[in-house]
Amino acid sequence: MKKTANFTAKTKAIVKKHGGDRSALIAVLQDIQETFNYLPKEAMNTVSTMMGIPASRVYEVATFYNAFSLNPRGKHIVKICVGTACHVRGASAIQDKFEQKLLIKPGETNQDQQFTLELVNCVGACALGPVVVIDTEYHGQMTMNKVDKIINEINKEGAQQ
Ligand code: FES
Hints:
The protein is an alpha+beta fold. It contains seven helices and four strands; from the N terminus they run H-H-H-H-E-H-H-E-E-E-H.
């Protein structure tokens, strides 16, 4: 309940910041995504009401762009490259390791909402395979030890904040 109120209050502030103009819909959704890491249903309903745009249209735009997610996402997005070059260099073992470490499968977010796991195709750094991109940072020549190290470091940073 508290969370819903939080979604609504913050969404109202975002819509107001953009002046409530219909043409600002994408910019508003981008800000909401940035704030919550995904587009909560309550936020989209608030956008629809405040901007006078049918909810179906808001959902249409939200589902059209890959940058938007309708499901909760973690603070950190872990993208494991499973393209051919990374695959032959052991990407599936790296995937298994992340799954065991974070206790989630691709497409899922862990319980404390720190990590979302995703599989992607070639990220253009084949020579460094297997490659994992965490947020915007590329990690090449991944090994089991590196997986442990990276996750532990991120968790430690999070605990210090
Ligand atoms: S296949 Fe992974 S970076 Fe190209």
